[in-house]
Amino acid sequence: MIVIPTAVSAGTVRTAASSGKAAPPETAPQAAVSAPRVLARCRDLVRPSLSAAIGRLHPWPGEMAAFSLGWCEVGGAPADGSFEGKGVRQTLAVLCAEAAGAPGESAVAGAVAVELIHTFSLLHDDIMDGDGTRRQRETVWKAYGTGPAVLAGDALFALAVQTLAETPGPYTAAAVGRLSETLSGLVRGQAEDLLFAARPWTGPEAVRTDEYRAMAELKTGTLLGCAAALGGLLGGAPARTVAALDRAGRHLGVAFQAVDDLLGIWGDPAVTGKPVHSDLRQQKKTYPVLAALAGDGPPTRELAALLDSPLPLDDAGTVRAAALVEACGGRTATLDEARHHLDAARVCLRSVPLAPRATSEIEALLGFLLHRRM
User: Fold this and answer.
1) How far is CA 150 from the centre of its chain?
2) 198: helix, coil or strand?
């Protein structure tokens, strides 16, 4: 049974849902919603259950999981909290349950599951990409070894499925099924991303921006869509609302990836924990570079020549490549891509009746993610 928050008229929500029409335009809240406060509130709600889930693991992979989450140092000593992630996916699950008119607590199991899957994917991605740092400190495979990091990732994968499967209620089977589909999408997206590395920068076999967009939806958008959909599903939302939340999360994922790509070239190392121009140094095929190479003219040809060189880019080469990507419009095109998908996410949210307060918090989250520090 859906519990309607006191800020929302139960009769209004039932009328909108029964009519199948989108909710009317909402009046802006009296006080501006703070995205960092929303993230903190949802993390605080989910943290006890997430901690309890990690506590069920064997102590060794459990320590690695806690290290990856920023909770402890190598050896298990408590960390100071500065290495913790924002918790975007768990927050989205909680907010979408509240947007469906249910208490945020109804989505905690889904929030835990998606956070575990996200952490699992980071452990394995860091190994595949050879990334030695994340959030300004060593990645798990660097700190503990490759084999142990793979084991910890596998443990988190299994724990996520178990967490949802053991959740009582009428939506358990549907939730597990959705998570399973999400895992398949994540694998497909990661496979495409790895295959992109072997393809040339130019010519008929080069990676196109539409291919990259499809990969980003699978690799990043699928899990954000799952988080949003699980929140709605566990909150008792109708199928049409769950589908709209899933689409919104997928668009958010593509936007999130676009901003990540900008940070990978122009991000502040104090925020990203990686050297400036890190993605260019590693010659990763990211949206800004692919968009820049899609054009024509002398700057594009110079950029292509730099990237096609058999020699790795030195410091001067990466600085020049970054300048050329910007001159060719890659940075602007990527910002436009992010804004387009955030707008599309908003359209999805406005296509179904949702509780105004939670919707305003989701909107604040969208804007916050676009303006992460460069």
Assistant:
1) 21
2) coil
User: 46: exposed, middle or buried (C-beta count within 10 Å: 0-12, 13-18, 19+)?
Assistant: buried
Length of the chain: 374
| pLDDT of amino acid 81 | 86
With respect to residue 217, please indicate whether it lies within any of the assigned structural domains: yes
The residue-averaged pLDDT of 239-266 equals: 96
Q: Count CB atoms within 10 A of the CB of residue 90.
A: 30
**In terms of residue numbers, what domain contains 122?**
34-370
Provide the number of structural domains found in the chain. 1
Measured from the Cβ of residue 235, the count of other Cβ atoms closer than 10 Å reads 30
What's the CA gap between 191 and 317, in Å, rounded? 29
Q: Is residue 180 domain-resident?
A: yes
* pLDDT 10s digits, 298-317: 999 999 999 999 888 999 99
Under DSSP, is residue 350 helix (H, G, I), strand (E, B) or coil?
helix
In a domain, 25, yes or no: no
The whole-angstrom separation of Cα 129 and Cα 274 is 14
* CA–CA distance, 341 with 329 (Å, rounded to integer): 18
Q: Identify how many contiguous H helices and E strands the chain contains and give both numbers.
A: 18, 2
Residue 214 is encoded by which pair of tokens?
């499809």
d(C-alpha 95, C-alpha 302), whole Å: 46
CATH of the domain at 221: 1.10.600.10
> Which contacts of 343-346 are long-range, i.e. CB under 8 A and separated by 24 or more positions?
344/251, 345/247, 345/248, 345/249, 345/251, 345/252, 345/255, 346/248
User: Is 329 buried (19+), middle (13-18) or exposed (0-12) by CB count in 10 A?
Assistant: middle
The pLDDT tens digits of the residues spanning 31-83 come to 578 999 999 999 999 999 999 999 999 999 999 999 999 999 999 999 998 88
Q: Residue 17 falls within a domain, yes or no? A: no
Is the whole-model pTM more than 0.85? yes
pLDDT at position 373, please? 55
